[in-house]
Amino acid sequence: MTIVDTPTPTPTARTHWGGSADRQETDRWDAVAERVAAVLGEDALARDRANAQPFAEAELLKASGLTTLLDPAEWGGGGAHWESALRAVRILSRTDASIAQLLGYHYINSANIALVAPHGERERWHRESIAGRWIWGDSVNPVDPNLTLTADGDGYRLNGFKRYSTGSGVGEALLVNAVVESGPEHGRFAFLVLPFGHPGVELVDDWDNLGQRLSASNTVTYRDVRVEARNLLGFGTDEPVQSLITPGIQLVFGNLYLGIAQGALAQARALTNARPNAWFLSTADTYREDPFVQRLYGELVSRVAAVEALADRVNRRFDEVIGVPGGVDAQARAALEIEVARLKVVSSDTAVDVTTRVFEATGTSSTATRVGLDLHWRNVRTHSLHDPVDYKKLEVGANFLTGAVQPISLYT
Fold first, then answer.
1. pTM of the model
2. Residue 188 class from Cβ within 10 Å (0-12 exposed, 13-18 middle, 19+ buried)?
3. Are 379 and 214 in contact (CB under 8 A)?
4. Out of 46, 202, 227, 331, which residue is the most buried by the measure of CB atoms under 10 Å away?
């Protein structure tokens, strides 16, 4: 018997991402994000109080190039990696977590071009999005299954509503998920993209929450909305690579919370250094020299540094998985989900604790409305309730003990 070596064919890349970001790339986009964060930080508190739709902030993101960072370079995009995008979200959240959320959700929503759209349609979607400088909002809240999508000729009709539709108030593209309830595609999970101002789509300006007030996360209602064939991005499949959107958005959360904690520490440090004198029982001359104050910062700074190290590792791992030629398998997808869940647990708990306890070092004066130190806590306390962190702890613990993996969903 003769054995003939047959060369293994090189698999076709499932997405346009591949490899990892180098230092030059991350330094470049870090600098862009830091410039934008500095501008946002000038009046973040005033804009939070005004609670207006963030049209000007959206234009700032577009002008900076951050919105096209992940798009293919050959079609006019930044050609960068997820690590750079996630670091940008983290940097912006240090001064304005609302706009960081807007950018992070945009990255996830627009990534569906690569994960959902048929190969032959991706160039069109990328070119239109890049040329139009689209910000992608979403209307996909899975706990609001109140949409009806029915066949209508060569298109569909959409009715219902969705709450918590981040970016819908200012985005040029609105990503909508709905199950087809009639026609040849009955039962399929559809990804629709509707332009801003599409007939029958009503944006309800009802987002008036404790924090993340400029994330444009209002309710959207749909009244007999005509959906043309060109508005269909694609359908959901059982491909593990397509479901990377869930660990992707949870990874955005982890970097968002980390950035908020870093921003709170930076502001608190400035306030503590500016405090005169010290507590009357202290042997120190100033609060900054008080051993109890130094101990508090030592604990909080160390915990945040540990979260940062984990986030950096998982950010890079996400690039490695999503860029696998031929697409990621179920095992790799599950392993990534657990890594991201760990980050969600520690970043959420750490950020809530840090943004609360910094007041112990900054004193009563820092609770003044004009100071705005509470903005960090309000933002992380609001967004960290997106999905219960206790269920992430259960997910991680069950996997550690038994190897159990949660079923794929828009939360796991």
1. 0.94
2. middle
3. no
4. 227
